[in-house]
Each structure stands twice: as structure tokens, then as C-alpha cells.
Write a structure and sequence with these properties.
Elements (H helix, E strand, L loop, with lengths): L1 H32 L7 H24 L4 E5 L4 E4 L6 E5 L2 E9 L7 E3 L5 E4 L8 E9 L5 E10 L5 E2 L1 E4 L5 E2 L5 E5 L6 H6 L1 E5 L5 E5 L4 E6 L8 E7 L4 E3 L2 E3 L2 E8 L3 E6 L4 E6 L2 E7 L12 E4 L2 E9 L15 E10 L6 E5 L17 E4 L10 H7 L6 E5 L19 H6 L4
Parallel strand pairs: 2-8, 9-18, 11-19, 20-28, 26-27
Antiparallel strand pairs: 1-3, 3-6, 4-7, 5-6, 7-8, 10-12, 12-15, 13-16, 14-15, 16-19, 17-18, 20-21, 21-22, 23-28, 24-25, 25-26
Length: 427
């Protein structure tokens, strides 16, 4: 009995040792895992290794990346972008190898990378209300490539303004020709817009702008332009805010030439026109000015248009009969040159007798010169004057019973004093 008891006790001790060994093994394993409910060291060590591995990859990739830095203007997603100088690409620590600008319709916009490879810009103006995508590629000194992309949308017609101007590029005009700009929208911020426009003359004359309205801005010097000089108009209006919600889109330089100095004086009382060129009398021509009922405006008037033949209908300028028809309707008025927007012309007259020229004022306000039907006789006074006149020449009317023409009726700002002219400038 004792042996059995000892044997059972011995067996029990061996079982407890075995169980302890197993439990000990579990405890050891648990100890390697951290020994708490939050998990052990093995996942943490694994995460650290993974993060370290990714960091090494990132560092290696960064070490191998191109040093070239591309900057695209405008920023990606920009709207109301200007049409001229707003889109461009620049690169530092590298050179551009390829730039592509395309409209949403897939039309490529031509452009040039600068000779030093540091910049790119389009060759011409962009279109309004168009979405563009721009992509650029550059390389650094090691030949590694960098890429950049952006898309933007240009300004719409509703959100932009443009100015139509005269004279045209390369035109030769008379000494009285102002620079006249007409905007397609009302300009609220006249100062900002005028500040974006400069007019200069090779003669060194001071040139000042005058606003006749919210849509018309003219420039002239105090006296007529100097004969033979060159005038330069610069429009730097791209992005200029003309008012709430509208901006300029023009970036343009225009030059024109001033020809010889010709000023013709019409004396409505003596019924003669004296043509003076470069200070010397060139010719004296008999004329027929406006009748006592419809006298010709007094004042300095600039020839703004020339027509070898044109139609003149009294109804268009307020001369109508009881039936509402024009008091006159001549479909082939020869050698006509416009002096005012309201319908004053100096023109040929073939329907009046020769006797009226130099002796009677018979017109509805125009200055008539003797001529023939068809405008094909170069020996007629009207033909001579037409052939010897330029857009921008001055015709001054004196001794008429009518008032002086308003400065904004045509290109006739010379009828305003220099002080009054300058008072109309916004800068």
C-alpha cells in the first residue's frame, strides 16, 4: 500500500512537472509576444521594418528624380484667363524639351521654346471661351525628365472687352488724325484702362487721352501732329479690369506715319476753299457750302473716310419731306470725303450748275465742289481735291452762320481747348 501511494505521488509529481513545462512554454511564447491584450512586439517590429523599407524606396526614388522644376502659368483650373501673355512655361535647374498646348477640340497651339530652353510661350493670341490643356517636359543635367500639366479656360466675350482703333497699322495719315479707340463695352474704370494705353510720337510731342464717353477714348497732341513723324499706339490691356466682371484681352503695338501737313480752309462767306500744304497755298477752289436754311458747321473737321462714289439719302440725316422720304437721294455722289458722323461731307457735285460754285451756297450742309457724273474726270476740282487728300487731313470751315461742330461729332476734338482736352483724361 505504501508503495502504491508513493508510486501515485511520484506519477503525480511527474505530471505536474510536465504540465508546468507545457505551461512554461506557453508563458515563454506569450512573453515573446508582449504578454498583454494589445499584441506583442512581433507586429510592431514587422511594421517598423515595412515603414523603413518604404522610406528607403522613397528616398531612392527621390535621389533619382529630376532636379528640373517646371512652372506653368496660369495655375491648373484657372478661369477667365487672358488671351495674349497669360499662358507660359518656365523651368529652373533644367531645360524644356517639349511643350504642348491644345484646345478642348484638339487643336494644337503653335509656340516656341526659348533658345536657352528656359521658357516657352505661344506664338499668338488664344481664343476666347476655350478650354486648353498644357503639358511640359524638361530634363536636368543628368538627363532625368520632369513633367508638369495644367488646364485652364480663357475669358468669355461676356467677361471681356476689346477696343477697335484708328488709324490702322502702317497707314499714312494727315496731321489732324487722332488716335480714336471705341470699346465694345462700357468702361467703368477709365483710369485703369487708360493707364494700359500709351500713344507716343517720334516728334516728342506730349500726347493726352480724352474720354468722350464710357466707350470712346481719343488721343492727340496740343497742336497738329508734326509732319513726317511716326506715332506709336501700345495697347497693354490683357487682364486689365475695365469694370465689374470685364477685363481686357488686347496686347498690341501699332505704328502709323504722319504725312505732309495739309489744312484746307473753307470760307462759307467768300465761297472759296484754300488748300495749304506745308505752309504754302497749293490751290484755291470755288465751293458751294450749306444754304442759309441748312448752313455748314464751323470748326476744324478731320477727313475720316473717302469714297470715290457713294449714296447720300437725306432721310438718314433727318432731311425728310411730308411723306417721310428723303429730301434728296443721290446714289452716285462722286469724290465724297466724310467730315462728321452726322453727315457733313466735302464732295463732288455734278447736278448743280457750274455757276453756283464760288457764288452761292446751296447744299444741305456739305461742302460741294464742281464735278462730273461717274467720278472719272481727273480735271474736275473735286477729283483733284480727292486725289490730293489723305484720311486725317483737316478742313476748317469759317464764316458760316451755323455753330461750331461738337468735338465728338466725328474726329473733331481739335475744336476743344487744350485745357478742356486734358481735363477729360482719367490719368
Amino acid at each position: 500500500m505504501e508503495w502504491r501511494v508513493r508510486t501515485d505521488s511520484k506519477r503525480r509529481r511527474r505530471s505536474l512537472v510536465a504540465i508546468s513545462a507545457v505551461l512554461g512554454g506557453v508563458l515563454v511564447l506569450a512573453g515573446c509576444g508582449g504578454g498583454d491584450d494589445k499584441g506583442g512586439d512581433t507586429p510592431k517590429a514587422s511594421g517598423e521594418a515595412s515603414a523603413k523599407s518604404q522610406a528607403d524606396v522613397d528616398a531612392a526614388a527621390a535621389k533619382d528624380a529630376s532636379k528640373a522644376k517646371i512652372a506653368i502659368t496660369p495655375k491648373d483650373g484657372a478661369t477667365n484667363v487672358g488671351l495674349n501673355d497669360a499662358a507660359n512655361v518656365a523651368v529652373s535647374e533644367g531645360t524644356l524639351t517639349q511643350v504642348e498646348l491644345k484646345s478642348s477640340e484638339g487643336t494644337a497651339v503653335p509656340g516656341k521654346i526659348a533658345a536657352d530652353g528656359k521658357s516657352w510661350k505661344p506664338d499668338g493670341a488664344l481664343k476666347r471661351s476655350t478650354k486648353y490643356a498644357l503639358s511640359a517636359t524638361a530634363k536636368d543635367e543628368a538627363g532625368r525628365e520632369a513633367h508638369e500639366n495644367a488646364s485652364f479656360t480663357t475669358v468669355s466675350p461676356q467677361n471681356s472687352f476689346v477696343g477697335s482703333f484708328i488709324p490702322d497699322e502702317g497707314q499714312t495719315v494727315g496731321v489732324g488724325m487722332p488716335v480714336s479707340i471705341t470699346f465694345d463695352k462700357q468702361i467703368k474704370d477709365k483710369k485703369a484702362v487708360q493707364a494700359g494705353i500709351t500713344v507716343t510720337s517720334s516728334s516728342g510731342q506730349e500726347v493726352v487721352g480724352h474720354w468722350f464717353s464710357t466707350q470712346r477714348l481719343d488721343f492727340r497732341p496740343e497742336k497738329y501732329w508734326q509732319a513726317g513723324s511716326t506715332v506709336t499706339l501700345k495697347l497693354a490691356l490683357d487682364g486689365v479690369q475695365g469694370g465689374p466682371g470685364i477685363q481686357g484681352v488686347q496686347s498690341k503695338t501699332v505704328t502709323f506715319k504722319i504725312g505732309r501737313s495739309q489744312v484746307s480752309t473753307v470760307d462759307a462767306k467768300s465761297k472759296k476753299m484754300t488748300v495749304t500744304r506745308d505752309g504754302a497755298v497749293l490751290k484755291t477752289i470755288p465751293i458751294s457750302a450749306g444754304s442759309p436754311e441748312n448752313p455748314t458747321y464751323n470748326g476744324q473737321m478731320v477727313i475720316s473716310e473717302k469714297f470715290k462714289e457713294t449714296r447720300m439719302n437725306g432721310a438718314t440725316v433727318g432731311f425728310t419731306d411730308d411723306d417721310g422720304k428723303g429730301e434728296y437721294d443721290i446714289k452716285d455722289v462722286p469724290h465724297a470725303m466724310r467730315l462728321s458722323q452726322s453727315g457733313t461731307f466735302v464732295h463732288g457735285n455734278y447736278w448743280g450748275p457750274d455757276s453756283v460754285f464760288g457764288s452761292a451756297n446751296t447744299s444741305h450742309g456739305c461742302v460741294g465742289l464742281n464735278d462730273t457724273k461717274g467720278a472719272n474726270d481727273p480735271n474736275q476740282p473735286a477729283a483733284w481735291f480727292y486725289d490730293n487728300s489723305l484720311i486725317g487731313d483737316v478742313v476748317t470751315v469759317v464764316n458760316s452762320p451755323d455753330k461750331t461742330i461738337k468735338p465728338d461729332n466725328g474726329l473733331n476734338g481739335w475744336n476743344m481747348s487744350w485745357a478742356d482736352w486734358k481735363a477729360g483724361s482719367a490719368v
